[in-house]
Amino acid sequence: MNAQLRRRLEMAARARDFLRAHQMDGVGQDLGLTKLEQLLEHAENLATQQRVGVVVERSAVKQRQELRRALQPRILGYLSAVGAVVGTQNAELAEQFRMPPPNTTHQGLLTMSRAILERATAQKELLVKL
Predict the structure, then answer these.
(1) In which domain, by residue range, is 14 found?
(2) pLDDT tens, 83-129?
(3) Could you give the CA distance from residue 62 to residue 106 in angstroms, rounded to a whole number?
(4) What 3-state DSSP class applies to 108?
């Protein structure tokens, strides 16, 4: 929530509190107060949803970073090392098990990882021998 919107909501809450404290016998005042309370309740619900969304987004970013930290140096490093050993016998396979660059996007890393896994599964017999 940006600052301007937050200030407007705080101002509306103060207006609601003022209207509650200074009740008059006006016909339209109760309708206005009811509508203002409904709008403030709706705004609070939306603010809660936004906070939950931000928390979910941050946890997803953290999970992606942990996945990348585990996937790239360990699993892909192992497969590229095995591919390099196999590459001494077959140059074509060495290129297929190449490690993705460290600045690859998350989507690119996942795509390359899936491709390497498929190739490793297809060449399982040859890789297990080594």
Answers:
(1) 3-129
(2) 778 778 777 777 777 888 888 888 888 888 888 888 888 877 877 77
(3) 12
(4) helix
